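Quick check before the chapter quiz. The format below is the same one you will see on the exam, so make sure you can read both the input and the output lines.
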Amino acid sequence: MVIEKVKEIKEAEDKAEEILKEAERKALTIRNSLSAQLERLRQEKEKFLEAEIKKYRSISESATTKKIAELEEEYRRKREEKSRQYQKNIIFVADSIWSEIKKDIML
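Here is the expected output.
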C-alpha cells in the first residue's frame, strides 16, 4: 500500500512537471507572439506619426504661405497708398512754392 501511494505521488509529480513544462512552452509562445505584435504596433505607430507629421507640415506650410501672401499684399497696398499720399504732398508743396515764387515776382 505504501509503495502504491509512493508510485501515485511519483506519477503526480511527473504529471505536474509535464504540466509546468507545457505551461512554460505556452508562455514562451505567448511572449514571442506578444513581442511580435508589439513590434508590429510600434512600426504602425511610427508610420502613422510620420504621416501625421507630414500632413501637419503640409497644412502648416500652406497656412504660412497664405499668411506671407496676405502680408505681402497688405505691404503692397500700404506702399501704394503712401506713394499716392507723397505724390499729393509733392504736388501741394510744389504748388505752394510756385505760388510763393509768383507772389515774390509780382511784388
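If your answer matched, good. The first helix runs from residue 2 to 106.
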